[in-house]
């Protein structure tokens, strides 16, 4: 297949409630939907997920748009693609910028599956029609609000809660949650807010039966994570650190973690993500699927991927209404008895809602040949 045209919707969706992490507060999510068209008129869709601020990782939506238009699309020009696994090698000469790469790579996977009349999940080792899901809870203004939020999610059926923490907002909220929900599968995510100086405080988290502690230290640190993992029994999970299979190999060799939060966009797309899943399976690392406040497009991709039998730990794949009043796909994702149904249409299995796209975004053609 040859990519003949690429269209883009730039969208902004207001969040139902602001989301606070150790590094900032988000009230609205900006994202782009890329629509790629082949020579036969088949179409694939992908989501560009980075934030407007370089505060989660360095990539932003603005830098990603430049990389896509100036550096990635020219590599696709007149290129005959036989297999979507070729895209990651084709993009290799552009360093880094994984989320920019993933937006096109995942759109091409969707296109390829549709062209072959297949659901995307049929390319993966999947047997499940619906999957258990978890929810990520932002930093709250007080403990009663926190417990109210968690009670609400538990009542909706979420099977695992991830609490955002930062130094000073850690032991007390965890203790309060554990008191009310002694058996709840619970984990925490620090988004790099601690340093090795905080090791004594982090050791105190060990008694709360947490499923894992996600990304306590900085995104470029492997050694301090390894030092912490040696003295706590709770699993350390790496998120921001892991941009490639190489990063997983390094983390495993050094003992920096026992779990990986895998986000397809953060590792440059499906091909690299599949290699990471294989590595984790081989070496006994607990791999699960993370999220980036995706719209229905990225959410559908995450569901297709997390339907793999390996993904037993509930991911950050909540229902559309966890973050948004309205989704830009025609059928928003709903949670039912703690699970979300994996779409079984062609490709990623969702249809865009033109009405919602026009309400929240605008459209332009960024490539045509
Ligand atoms: O650190 O996992 C994270 C959201 C945006 C950026 C980083 C993270 C998160 C979340 C929520 O924790 C994931 C989601 O529910 O989409
Ligand atoms: Mg994280």
UniProtKB/TrEMBL annotation:
The active site is at residues 164, 263. It is an enzyme of class 4 (lyase). Its EC number is 4.2.1.113. Keywords: Lyase, Magnesium, Menaquinone biosynthesis, Metal-binding. It comes from the Bacteria. Pfam families: MR_MLE_C, MR_MLE_N. GO terms for biological process: menaquinone biosynthetic process. The keyword Transferase does not apply. It catalyses: (1R,6R)-6-hydroxy-2-succinyl-cyclohexa-2,4-diene-1-carboxylate = 2-succinylbenzoate + H2O. One of its GO terms (molecular function) is racemase and epimerase activity. Residues 143-235 form the Mandelate racemase/muconate lactonizing enzyme C-terminal domain. InterPro entries: Enolase-like_C_sf, Enolase-like_N, Enolase_C-like, Mandelate_racemase_C, Mandelate_racemase_N_dom, MenC, OSBS/NAAAR. Pathway: Quinol/quinone metabolism; menaquinone biosynthesis; Quinol/quinone metabolism; 1,4-dihydroxy-2-naphthoate biosynthesis; 1,4-dihydroxy-2-naphthoate from chorismate: step 4/7. Mg(2+) binds at residues 189, 214, 239. Its cofactor is a divalent metal cation. Belongs to the mandelate racemase/muconate lactonizing enzyme family. MenC type 2 subfamily. Converts 2-succinyl-6-hydroxy-2,4-cyclohexadiene-1-carboxylate (SHCHC) to 2-succinylbenzoate (OSB). This is o-succinylbenzoate synthase. It comes from Enterococcus termitis.
């Amino acid at each position: 297949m040859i990519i003949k045209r690429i269209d883009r919707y730039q969208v902004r969706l207001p969040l139902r409630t602001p989301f606070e992490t150790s590094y900032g507060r988000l009230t609205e999510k900006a994202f782009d939907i890329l629509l790629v068209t082949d020579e036969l008129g088949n179409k694939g869709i992908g989501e560009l997920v980075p934030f407007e601020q370089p505060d989660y990782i360095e990539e932003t939506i603005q830098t990603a748009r430049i990389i896509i238009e100036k550096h990635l699309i020219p590599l696709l020009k007149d290129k005959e693609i036989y297999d979507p696994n070729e895209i990651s090698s084709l993009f290799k000469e552009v360093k880094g910028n994984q989320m920019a790469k993933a937006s096109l790579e995942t759109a091409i996977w969707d296109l390829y599956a549709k062209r072959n009349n297949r659901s995307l999940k049929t390319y993966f080792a999947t047997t499940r029609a619906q999957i258990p899901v978890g929810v990520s809870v932002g930093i709250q203004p007080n403990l009663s609000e926190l417990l109210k939020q968690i009670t609400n999610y538990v009542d909706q059926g979420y099977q695992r809660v991830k609490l955002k923490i930062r130094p000073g907002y850690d032991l007390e909220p965890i203790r309060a949650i554990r008191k009310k929900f002694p058996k709840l599968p619970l984990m925490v995510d620090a988004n790099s807010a601690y340093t090795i100086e905080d090791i004594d405080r982090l050791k105190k988290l060990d008694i709360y039966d947490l499923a894992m502690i996600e990304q306590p230290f900085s995104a470029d640190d492997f050694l301090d994570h390894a030092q912490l993992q040696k003295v706590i029994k709770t699993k350390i999970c790496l998120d921001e650190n892991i941009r490639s299979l190489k990063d997983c190999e390094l983390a495993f060799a050094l003992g920096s973690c026992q779990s990986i939060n895998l986000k397809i966009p953060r590792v440059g797309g499906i091909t690299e993500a599949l290699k990471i899943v294989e590595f984790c399976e081989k070496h006994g690392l607990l791999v699960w699927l993370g999220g980036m406040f995706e719209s229905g497009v990225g959410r559908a991709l995450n569901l297709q991927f997390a339907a793999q039998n390996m993904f037993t730990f509930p991911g950050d794949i909540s229902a559309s209404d966890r973050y948004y009043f309205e989704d830009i796909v025609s059928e928003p994702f709903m949670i039912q008895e703690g699970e979300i149904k994996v779409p079984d249409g062609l490709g990623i299995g969702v249809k865009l809602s033109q009405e919602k796209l026009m309400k929240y975004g605008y459209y332009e053609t960024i490539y045509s040949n």
